Amino acid sequence: MTMSAHGNMMYGMDLSEDQIKVLEENFTKVSKHPDETTLMLIAAECGLSESETAKWFRMRNAQWRKSEGLPAELGSVKD
After folding, report:
1. Other CB atoms within 10 A of residue 41 CB
2. Do residues 53 and 46 lie in contact, with contact meaning Cβ atoms separated by under 8 Å?
């Protein structure tokens, strides 16, 4: 299974390879918790709505936290 197929199924979103690439690059290089302005710019770059982009970041953060052995929800431990 490719990363994009896995990502699409996991997040319940129909994303292209290019969209996933842009989202992942922003997640790893810019911010795991983008502010409103950054979120708007990422959404525009991907051709997604801000709510779709925010949903992707929430789901991706939960996945990242789980992989790091942290609780899925942001709590007292800072990323």
Report:
1. 15
2. yes
Distance CA 62, CA 49 (A): 20
Per-residue pLDDT of the chain (79 residues; tens, 9 = 90+): 344 444 555 567 889 999 999 999 999 999 999 999 999 999 999 999 999 999 999 999 988 888 888 877 765 455 4
Helix (H) or strand (E) holding 46: helix 36-46
HSE (CB half, 13 Å, CA atoms) of 31?
Answer: 11
Closest by CA to 43, choosing from 67, 31, 29, 26, is 26
For the beta carbon of residue 48, count every other beta carbon within 10 angstroms: 19
Q: Kindly state the tokens that stand for 14.
A: 């129909």
